[in-house]
Amino acid sequence: MTGTRKWVVSESSNLSVNGTTNINKFACEIPAYDRTDTIFLKNKNDKEIALSGNIDLKVQSFDCHNSIMTHDLRKTLKEPQFPLLHISFLSLNKLPGLTTQPEIITGLVDIEIAGVRKRVEVNYQISEDAQNVIHLLGSRDVNFSDFNLIPPRKLGGMIQTNDKLSVTFHLKINQL
Asked: What's the predicted TM-score (pTM) here?
């Protein structure tokens, strides 16, 4: 089946970032998406699925459940100069079946953090629930250094955040 489909990303979508320091782990999240965005799927055939559309996340919305860590993450991401983290959806490796059984697919996205844009492949699990809500769970490891950022340090460098972050997101989508 060819054509274009519209997916509307709902406000109940969320994103989390998990990382480690030399002494502990941390989890920061944007617990709810404060707007709706549309992603367009255009398929020429079952193997060529182009996506277009973005989601923009407010860096100010990150909550690390620790005020110092929250402040440090926002500062590291250069929140005053770059208040938004952008994710642009580019493609999927196949047309999802959209059943209640999660299906594994991959796709390309551009992630822009602090003014630096990187194209990455994301692993997704996609399914549809009984209310016809599409659940797109994505995950990708990124490094602060990929975006020319220096991980936060505390106490004169005695506490150092590791470069690698695990980013996961759960988009709840309604198909129009």
From this structure: 0.87
